[in-house]
Amino acid sequence: MKCDLHVHSWHSGMCTQPMVNRICRESYSAPEQVYSRLKQRGMDLVTLTDHDSIGAAELLRNRPDFFLSEEVTCRMPSGTTAHIGVFDVTERDHVEIQRRRDDLVRLLAYLTERRLLFSVNHVFSCLTGARKIDDFQWFGSYFPAAETRNGQMPAFHNQRAEQFATQQGMSSVGGSDSHALASLGSAYTEVPDARDKTEFLDGVRAGKAVVRGSSGGYLRLTRDVISISAQMIKRDHWKAIFIPFFALLPVATVVTSLGESVFARYWSARVAESPIALRSEVFGESG
Asked: What are the extents of the domains in the chain?
């Protein structure tokens, strides 16, 4: 079975970048559009991972191949921010997760108690701001999975994420991280022998998942940013006053892409040089 485990819709809210956060949403894709496009692209299961939101639940809950997830914005003990994919949640889970997302220890305790599958997303990305070396200790020691194929991240980032997950004994997940319809299903997770959602998620936990699809980069990022901007104007016509600034979008995405490359290279090298405890050392596993 195949599922894109990192997908955004209208319910992800406003952009987080300064200035842009006042005028543009993270995505203008309707949940029904996302569902249809993912089915067209061969996904057997569909989920949405909107930022700290399960707003799509009412629209898609009756689809037998849909399950609810979210991308949680979490504060690390170091004070930095991370994005955590949490899969197959209930409305009650969502409430409790949001209550705990500023306290990683409490959040991890809840996720573990509820036996929820979760992953650290785009682990070597600067999307969430600064990073500290202690963050990677937490990721490698206490997170069961890492996103090792992100459809917006360049190949180098995904390669280093895969190396990190392998070294730490973490399961791999893949997703498009799509904020626009065009990129949906560009990366995804496959569990070959799974027959339903439960077997799919159990397969991911057991390390049986294979990540598929392509990495991202400048061209895909630029296309999606232009698409989102066009959808913004289509929805709110008065924002057409910003059209002259569209010429600067390719420049902005060049800067973003270069920043991602520098950040990923720096932190992957730091992690490779630093003594990150193996999961077996933390949990006392043997054999």
From this structure: 2-283
What global pTM score does this model have? 0.94
What is the topology classification, in CATH, of domain 2-283?
TIM Barrel (3.20.20)
Other C-beta atoms lying within 10 Å of the C-beta of residue 133: 14
Q: Which residues, including other chains, have CB under 8 Å from residue 261's CB and lie 6 or more apart?
A: 154, 156, 157
pLDDT tens digits, one per residue of 147-198: 999 999 999 999 999 999 999 999 999 999 999 999 999 999 999 999 999 9
Beta bridge partners of 14: 25
Q: Say which residues have a Cβ less than 8 Å from residue 240's Cβ, sequence separation at least 6.
A: 233
pLDDT confidence band for 18 (50 / 70 / 90) = confident
- Residues with Cβ within 8 Å of residue 171, at least 6 apart in sequence: 119, 144, 145, 146, 165, 204, 205, 206, 207, 209
